[in-house]
Write a structure and sequence with these properties.
By secondary structure, the chain is α/β, with parallel strands linked by helices. It has 2 domains: 220 residues, Aspartate Aminotransferase, domain 2 (3-Layer(aba) Sandwich), CATH 3.40.640.10; 110 residues, Aspartate Aminotransferase, domain 1. The protein is built from 13 helices and 13 strands. The strands form 3 sheets. Strands 1-9-8-5-4-2-3 form a 7-stranded mixed sheet, with helices on both faces. Strands 7-6-10 form a 3-stranded antiparallel sheet, with no helix packed on it. It has a 3-stranded antiparallel sheet with strand order 11-13-12, with helices on one face. A hairpin with a 2-residue loop joins strand 6 and strand 7. The longest helix is centred in the C-terminal third of the chain and has 27 residues. The chain binds pyridoxal-5'-phosphate. Pyridoxal-5'-phosphate binds next to helix 5 and helix 6.
Length: 381
Amino acid sequence: MGCPTMHALLRMTTPTMWAGHTQGGEPLRRDMPRIPLAKPFWDEECEMAAVAALSSGRWVKGPQAKAFGDEFAKWCGAIAAVPCQSGSAALWAAMRLLEIGPGDEVIVPGMTFIATATAVSLVGATPVFADIEENYWCICPDDVEAKITENTKAVIGVHIFGQPFSQRLRQICNDHNIALVEDAAQAHGTTLDGKMAGAIGDVACFSFFPSKNMAVGGEGGMITTTVPELAERMNRLVDHGRDDTLESVELGTNLRMSEVSAAIGRIQLKHLDDWISKRRANSESIVHETKTRGGGKHAWHQLCILADDPNEMISRFNNNGIDARVHYPIPCNRHQVYSGHMQHETSLPNCDNLAHRLVAIPVHPFLSQNDIEEINSILRL
Ligand SMILES: Cc1ncc(COP(=O)(O)O)c(C=O)c1O
């Protein structure tokens, strides 16, 4: 018997086989159908789009990436969008776009995925860690204001778990003439005062990591902007800082998204509104007390529950076949990478009190009614 073809293998891949694989490695309970925290979407249309992109022979710098950027910008209301290789790459590019470098400070929340802060360090600037809000877990506007100095060039607000950051950030940045960057890696579909993530700040950065609200069949990201002068440079930055004549006019590198990823992304984008509606419906069916900000809409990338005893809660879920984990156990300033940072030992009280107690449980759009009932039954235990 010959080896199965790639197509046959893809068809043999059942939805449960995708479960728990977003971080690599084996699922925790190999032979049991677990309820995963994320379930990357793959169907025949994605497969056909991927194969068509490969068969076209145009693997990079082609029509798919251009169309994906245009469609994504239209979807979120930005004036332009450029696909790139990851959310982290998008954040790095955002720093370059805003000409942030040595001597500059950028205010970031103390509780977020580490890439929010390391993007600042990677351009030679200093991340200044601000505390988070007690109720909504996004960067605290009062602490941002307190930490602005003459060196502050930008604030990176993270729509953490899909929760929109405070409306006050925009005003604070305007008042101090500094840029507002949205880390929207977890926020496809988040809204604030009628604007979608991607169109709130000057620049926004999305991730298409497999667990995110939409994906591209691998690593991927998107940079969007609302500032006309930045739009053209955005294209340049992901392509060695080159202009139309192929001369490099500023420092950039190759951050381009491949055509096959963009083709998959375009298919997934068509489902995104529906998936976000389902996430919102699931968040309403699951019994929890997590708050949402007035004037905004949460996109429920993660449903995190504040637990007094996070280990007990995680065990309760895991032992019953449901994945759960803490996001993010260590505040960014306390990571080893920042052992030399002025704020390494500084307490950001809400970060220190909350970060290790926020337990993410499944809320993804592919949960069945039965899954939701099981989740609720564990929450009631
Ligand atoms: C808040 C936040 N920022 C940035 C990133 C980085 O995105 P990527 O993994 O695509 O580089 C992530 C990804 O998990 C994230 O959650």
